[in-house]
Amino acid sequence: MSETMQDGATIEARDRLFVRLANLGIAAAVVPYPAHDTVEEGKRLRGAMAGAFTKNLLLRDKKGRLFLFAIHEDRALDLRTLHSLVGANGRLGFAPAERMVEILGVQPGALTPLGLINDMSGTVTAVIDAALLDAEQVNFHPLVNTESIGLRPAELLMFIRSCDREPMLIDFDAASGSNRALP
């Protein structure tokens, strides 16, 4: 499937996403964003777009439990120790692209916590970088990688909660790796 929204399921999911955001009182503008494959390429293409930008990773533990990490685009994670911060069973590794499409309804390159709207069974645990809460706006793909949408951090948390799950907020900068209290 092309990330240009030619797939009917993607169009339907995107429509549901914007209805959900409107029902939550979130009025976020959609900005065209050239398709890209890497964070570095995205930095070059976005120009003067406001807000913090993320990289999003779908990781799984040894038992197959899935974690969607939304972290600041410049943050590096240590996959050897990351499992201890989120209570995973053993080291985390990348989930297959097929699982991303099957559960979250997004293609690689368009991964976003907004895809949780498609995870009807609550399979994926949302892990949010606490540093993102300090931003005025955090940008994500609205299920396709040819657009960006900016949300206030509180709106992101509200959306995740509307998907019947509590986001796991991790302060990666803290030496202890302890969880930060959610607003």
Can you walk me through this structure?
By secondary structure, the protein is α/β, with parallel strands linked by helices. Strands 1, 2, 3, 4, 5, 6, 7 and 8 form an eight-stranded mixed β-sheet that branches. The chain contains five helices and eight strands, in the order H-E-H-E-E-H-E-H-E-E-E-H-E. It starts with 7 loop residues before the first helix and ends in a 13-residue tail after the last strand. The longest helix is centred in the first third of the chain and has 16 residues. A hairpin with a 5-residue loop joins strand 2 and strand 3.
List the helices and strands and how they pair.
Elements (H helix, E strand, L loop, with lengths): L7 H16 L6 E3 L6 H7 L6 E9 L5 E7 L9 H5 L6 E2 L2 H8 L19 E6 L8 E3 L6 E5 L1 H10 L5 E3 L13
Parallel strand pairs: 2-6, 3-5, 5-8
Antiparallel strand pairs: 1-7, 2-3, 2-4, 6-7
- Strand percentage lies at 15-25%
Main beta sheet, described? 8 strands, mixed
How do the SSEs run, as a string of H and E? HEHEEHEHEEEHE
Q: Categorize the overall geometry.
A: globular
From the alpha carbons, calculate the radius of gyration and give it in angstroms.
15 Å
Helix content: 25-40%
Number of helices: 5
Mean pLDDT: 87
Record field, number of beta strands: 8
The low-pLDDT segments are 1-6, 175-183
Structural class determined from secondary elements: alpha/beta
How far is the N terminus from the C terminus?
38 Å
